[in-house]
């Protein structure tokens, strides 16, 4: 009879541990740079044992990605209380937290990581976008969005993704000393962008106009949904 | 000595013909639905002869995509004359022409066509985005954009892409009779969106503020860069 000093993990527990270790590694580097050997080492188990739980790197990557998608989706959840601008701003803060924590992995994924991208990873990303869309509709208290409203919300979601990716790059413009735009400014700006895009659409669509009216009715002076007066 | 009734095509001419035929087919259906046999038939040549010019479907797809990228990039070119809003609106019209002509292929590609996506196709797409970015900077007469300006322009480009994709879907909301938003409205709205996003950013950035001032100085009353007065 062998009694290890370390407790043996159960199957589910081991799977969970491997997913957590993989997600951590895949967050810090792009998928092609992470090897099964490295995941095994970080988990403190042998390479064959990793393969016992996951047939290959792709499956482990997809499991890690599913975990990340659930985590991000959970961060979209926000109580339906108080002005909409403050709610959206809190979600933006948590979104940037997530992007910050998973930076290189998020970039590789969203830029269509050719090495490991698949229709399953695309479906996971679309699922997160759909969750974001539905959360926004729920907060706006809209059951039947018009095509224009759907367009504003979905295209704003892609604006937020691109903004986060560019922020991650820190994209230093080669010929100038550029500072990275502070996160907090971008979070606020995205909320203002939502209001600005909704206002443009409102000139074409009565439902959007009603929505903008309701959004602003609850918004305090200086709230993030109020596009500040131009300084020019 | 054989003398065909039809003139023999030269190597380059044949390659060009195959690319044109492939681009047409790949525009109308997603890449996985188009076979080499079909391309051969449409080009009026044998399947082995297609392989003589292109080692496989992937290479032919990439050549067709390169052609499409060049074509789209050419449509961004616009004389540096007249108000900026009208210039941007004309480019948007040509962009939607392109999207309309290559609909299903454009969708499959931009949604990260898993079957045939590669780092080369991603690089081609990024090249088109970069060309769009540089054209906008040139029209704005900006040599050294700030990080914030770059962010506004690049994130607006992704907004335009998403808007075009949603327009292509016609995305009928299941529970309501929705009309497809007219193309012309979206083209104009995107120009207004650009102005609206720039105006938000201008509250954080002196260079952006100066830019918005210059943009609007030349813009006639009712021009597309003028965000219309809210109707609510």
UniProtKB/TrEMBL annotation, chains A, B:
Span of domain HTH tetR-type: 12-72
Ranges of the DNA-binding region feature: 35-54
SUPFAM superfamilies in the cross-refs: Homeodomain-like (SSF46689)
Name of protein: TetR/AcrR family transcriptional regulator
UniProt xrefs under PROSITE patterns: HTH_TETR_1, HTH_TETR_2
Pfam families, alphabetized: TetR_C_46, TetR_N
Top-rank taxon: Bacteria
InterPro entries, per database record: DesT_TetR_C, DNA-bd_HTH_TetR-type_CS, Homeodomain-like_sf, HTH-type_TetR-like_transc_reg, HTH_TetR
Keywords: DNA-binding, Transcription, Transcription regulation
